Amino acid sequence: MTSSADTAAATGAAGRTALVFPGMSALKYADVARFMLTNPIARRLREEADDALGYCLADHYRDAEEDYAESAQAAFLLNCTALAQWAVGAFGFTPVACAGPSFGAKAAACFSGALGFADTIRLTVELARCEQDYFRTEHTDVVTQSFVRTPEEGLRELLAGMDARGQWYEVSCHVDRDFFMVSLREPGLDAFTAGIRALGGLPLYAMRPPMHCAAFAPLRERAAAVLDGFTFADPALPVVRDQDGAAVTTAAGVREMLLDGFVRPVRWPDAVRGLRDLAVTRVCVAGPDTLWGRVPCTVEAFDVLAASPRAALRPRRYAPWAPPAPVTALAPVSAAASVKG
Amino acid sequence: MWDEEFERILRDRLPFLPPDEPLEADLDLTANGLDSMGIVDLMVTLEREYDVRFGGDLLSLETFSTPAVLWKTVTALTSPAA
Questions:
Q1: Are B37 and A294 within 8 A, CB to CB?
Q2: What is its EC number (chain A) (predicted)?
């Protein structure tokens, strides 16, 4: 069940709401510039980001030549954070948890209070540099291919064939029941996508650098050294881990979640289940989202409130956002008893 | 030229194309808001409405690049020889 932001707000759809921060997708500066430059929350965060980075983030983002340049990553984080704060005030809800698949885990860590905004911006940029440096020399022939409409059983058979031929691969992301991302060596990509088509699946994009593979353990080590420069706090809101749906409630847990993101696959249906275990009935997807708030496993489990840059630019009454209060209790509630399915 | 149903289905999935602007044959569908989830939804809807099944090499993002390419594909799939 999906409802537009306006519909949900107008009907006052109640229930327990979680914030979901989307994984990063390529986003042109022009598509988000108006929100980023004119929204008062985004403006305030830009000032904070500029101070933290020592350069004008918006200018660097505008001039970036690559979709996933460090400035594009920092800007994505900023816009998601600003949209979350805007949504809480504009739609008038108190989030009970947050989650963030893939890149969104950083924004979730920030919103939960585990890491301050300026620190999260610096962390994002430092991790972007770390990753770029790593993949300059390591796994240079590995890509992550996304594909949809592929039954898991058929995929398993396709991967078993690769096992039999001694071809390396890892499943990097379970987006939905029939939507996956697999990392593999580029020379085998054409045969793999042909196999996906033979199953009736639609290959989407081959992404470089690749992501979420156990083979990237050395990258995790380098990232751990980066994270050593930051102090995490216990989150004020439970953060539902994108790798298995567990509710993370400690500083150390948030740190491990971010590091494990390099080496463990995203399992979004498990995260959905984790949110349901917290009796969440509605998710507010904060950011420019093209995927996570729209896949069937999300819309079948929750009402979805889209806090997109476009939604935020519409005139609306507004109550300012305040940081979440510390968690006092974290009692999983039976999903069957209290969550609509 | 495509039929009205095709145009309606396609326009519903192009959030950046103003209703009063024509759907040109070579319109860049991605630039007009057709993203990956939109492509999946579009494919499923066309399969249902035209009683066809996209398969083989047609399962490619290129199939969904412009209205002309997509309509040509749908036409080929609905032709008796398909």
A1: yes
A2: 2.3.1.39
Q: How many CA atoms lie within 13 A of A230 on its CB side?
A: 30
The token duo for B54 is 């996209």
Counting one residue from chain A and one from chain B, the pairs whose CB atoms sit within 8 A come to 38
Mean pLDDT of chain A, nearest integer: 90
Q: CA torsion sign, A249 to A252 to A254 to A257?
A: negative
Q: What is the domain class of A142-208 according to CATH? A: alpha beta
Give the torsion through C-alpha atoms of A72, A76, A77, A78, to 10 deg: 100
* Encoded tokens for A293: 């708030």
- From the candidates B32, B36, B54, which should be mutated to test the interface with A, based on the most A CB atoms within 10 A? B36
Decide if A286 contacts A307 (C-beta within 8 A). Answer: yes
Residues of A whose CB is below 8 A from B56 = 197
The answer to whether A5-137+232-338 and A142-208 have equal CATH topology is: no
CB contact under 8 A, B59 and A202: yes
Residue B61 contacts A, CB cutoff 8 Å: yes
Q: Note the pLDDT tens digit of each residue in A84-96.
A: 999 999 999 999 9
Does residue A201 sit at the B interface (CB-CB below 8 Å)?
yes
Give the residue extent of every domain in chain A: 5-137+232-338, 142-208
State residue A317's pLDDT score: 60
Tens digits of per-residue pLDDT, A168-216?
999 999 999 999 999 999 999 999 999 999 999 999 999 999 999 999 9
CATH topology of domain B1-7+28-82: 1.10.1200
CATH class of A5-137+232-338: alpha beta
Is some CB atom of chain A closer than 8 A to the CB atom of B43? yes
